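Below is one record:
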Amino acid sequence: MPTVSREHSSDAAASPRRRSRAREEIQPLLEELKAALGDLYGERLARVVLYGSFARGEATDASDIDVLVVLRGEVDERTEIKRTSEMLYALQTKHRELIALLPISWGEYHARAHPLMVNVRREGQLV
């Protein structure tokens, strides 16, 4: 009867999708992202918040990087996504990571009782 070697079974356990990742692995990308957002928005940039699996310490190789961009003044999500798309594409290509940006106004960040905002305020980490 064939047996499974220890090496083979540990390879399966260490599959790329299961390897855990820490924020430290993406810190250079986060610093570049914050600087680029600062260049783009200047004084309008109120906060950059990492949330999701990286903030909770549950990220794997299959995880994207969830980032909330809190801006002063009115925010039109579509406009801000268009405004950041070229910069975001360049960073994603350079670092080979998927970044999910969510732009929101300072007022919405503090006032919204939406479950996502509640979680971001509770678990999010400032960049």
